[in-house]
Amino acid sequence: MTELPVANPMGLRVLLVEDQMIVAMLIEDMLRELGCVVVGPAGTLESAVRLAREEELDAAILDVNLDGQKVFPAAEELLTRRIPFIFATGYGEQILPEKWHGLRRLAKPFNREQLEELIRSISSN
Questions:
Q1: pTM higher than 0.85, yes or no?
Q2: Residue 95 in contact with residue 65, Cβ under 8 Å?
Q3: Most buried of 67, 80, 90, 105, CB within 10 angstroms?
């Protein structure tokens, strides 16, 4: 059986949206270890929307809850631009409106291997 080539995340520009600084630093380190270029991190909805709208991006990781505000306006910007993204949440899929069910999601806490698997999957699209 022949293995399919695995997408290489090296050089991908990934928007990181996370309001908890320690968590943002951990995810940023994981992304850099994978060879990604981190845009952000954005810790507020306002900065997340601005970066999603204005920056050159290949992908994004979006914390769903930003200090009580939901990240969905930034997700809409990325969707409009056809930039793949991953929701990161500790609340499970039930926190997501039905529109967003079935999309790629990282359940917090997650490890580097889980992050790498999803980054590779979106970089191959």
A1: yes
A2: yes
A3: 105
